[in-house]
Automatic annotation (TrEMBL):
Origin superkingdom: Bacteria
Organism in which the protein naturally occurs: Lacipirellula limnantheis
Signal peptide: 1-18
Family annotation (Gene3D superfamilies): Peptidoglycan recognition protein-like
Domain named N-acetylmuramoyl-L-alanine amidase: residues: 35-182
One of the GO biological process terms: peptidoglycan catabolic process
Protein name stated in the entry: N-acetylmuramoyl-L-alanine amidase
One Pfam family, short name: Amidase_2
SMART domains linked to this entry: Ami_2, PGRP
Family as reported in the entry's similarity comment: Belongs to the N-acetylmuramoyl-L-alanine amidase 2 family.
């Protein structure tokens, strides 16, 4: 009996893959001095998808990622005063759960136990929202940003038992209503490469992330090189 048990234990690592590790470059809410308002309990949800976004705003390095986050968070809380319907809903915290800076740092946003926010119509409950700073219809994600998106998605998928096929983008969640996350990032979902890279991390390998050549009619400049226009 004991021998059988030991044999089973010895074989286990060959079958069960170890969970993808938490990315080492996460900046916690405490570290960037997040200042959210309380989120009501009725907005708690169970994550079923990882949904990727871009900010949709050209990143020109004119502010730090920390300033960008503080501004977005403050704006969300003031929406009822400063925005027109239907955009005037109150956002107590950042609309996304994680936000990835051009240098690859991953900032914590809204706690994962609460559903996100959006200005497009789709079922918000169940989504873990990951936003990449920048506009990938006008600039290209940096290699560091791509790698962080892959490692974060792999870790979240394992931690929340989300299948690789349920890692998607905003335009997959809300077809026809947005071009988010931008052509030069969406290409890696079209090609299946993003999913491959995630699975490499989940299998304990180094992801073989190779950015593609600029798309025909797509942006050429990488986000870290974009100058103010
Ligand atoms: Zn989006």
């Amino acid at each position: 009996m004991r021998t059988l048990l030991l044999t089973i234990l010895a074989l286990l690592p060959a079958f069960a893959h170890a969970a993808a590790p938490r990315p080492t470059n996460i900046v916690t809410c405490e570290e960037w001095k997040s200042d959210p308002a309380p989120i009501p309990d009725e907005r708690k949800h169970t994550p079923r998808y990882i949904t990727l976004h871009h900010a949709g705003v050209l990143w020109t390095n004119s502010q730090t990622p920390e300033q960008f986050l503080r501004n977005m968070q403050a704006w969300g809380k003031r929406r009822p005063e400063i925005e027109q319907p239907p955009r005037n809903t109150y956002w107590p915290d950042l609309p996304y759960h994680f936000l990835i800076a051009p240098d690859g740092r991953i900032f914590e946003g809204r706690p994962v136990e609460y559903e996100p926010e959006s200005n497009t119509k789709y079922e918000l409950a169940g989504n873990l929202g990951v936003e990449m700073m920048g506009d990938f219809n006008q600039q290209r994600p940096s290699p560091a940003q791509l790698e962080s998106a892959v490692r974060l998605a792999a870790w979240l998928a394992d931690a929340h038992k989300i299948a690789a096929d349920d890692i998607r983008t905003h335009q997959d969640a809300a077809p026809g209503s947005t071009t988010c996350p931008g052509a030069d990032f969406y290409r890696y979902f079209n090609s299946g490469e993003f999913k491959q890279w995630v699975q490499q991390v989940q299998q304990g390998q180094e992801p073989q992330i190779i950015p593609g050549a600029p798309l025909p009619d797509g942006p050429v400049e990488v986000i870290t090189e974009t100058k103010k226009r």
